[in-house]
Design goal:
3-stranded mixed β-sheet; alpha+beta; 6 strands; hypothetical protein PF0899 fold; binds zinc ion
């Protein structure tokens, strides 16, 4: 279960982010998953379901998956082509000297979150910036008799 491992890691990352930013609830998470990352999105979603039910911060949150098409670059002729269709062999020149440009991603693209406390009801700290000390504003600095 490759996917479960990733989700465990993902859930932990989201927990950390939530703790650091005082996030009480994560509404949705958008993941970018490459076409040839080896992740089966259905299993990924199952694992996500399993975890969101056990994590209050993630409860009810939505997982959105954006698939990134895999692209391979050919060293032989300098062209790029769709990895899924042609694999490691360049369809233009037949070279095997090719490498994956993208399509192996598994990254968090976006998190929609709710933070603790409304921005309105913390009217405590007003006044900190008013009536500051009279810093020298350049007055009467006239030297030189
Ligand atoms: Zn080629």
């Amino acid at each position: 279960m490759h996917e479960m491992g990733i989700i465990i890691h993902l859930a932990k990352t989201l927990d950390d982010i939530a703790a650091r930013n005082r996030i009480t609830k994560i509404g949705s998470v958008t993941m970018e998953i490459g076409e040839v990352s080896g992740i089966v999105t259905e299993l990924f979603e199952d694992a996500w379901d399993y975890f969101t039910k056990r994590n209050p911060v993630l409860a009810g949150s939505e997982l959105r998956i954006e698939t990134i098409p895999a692209v391979t670059y050919c060293d032989g002729c300098g062209k790029t082509y769709g990895t899924v269709a042609f694999g490691r062999t360049c369809p233009f020149c037949g070279s095997g000297e090719t490498w994956l440009v993208r399509g192996n991603e598994c990254v968090i693209k976006e998190i929609e979150a709710e933070t603790a406390g409304e921005p309105e009801d913390s009217g405590q700290e007003i006044g900190a910036e008013t009536a500051g000390e009279p810093e020298d504003t350049g007055q009467g600095a006239g030297t030189g008799t």
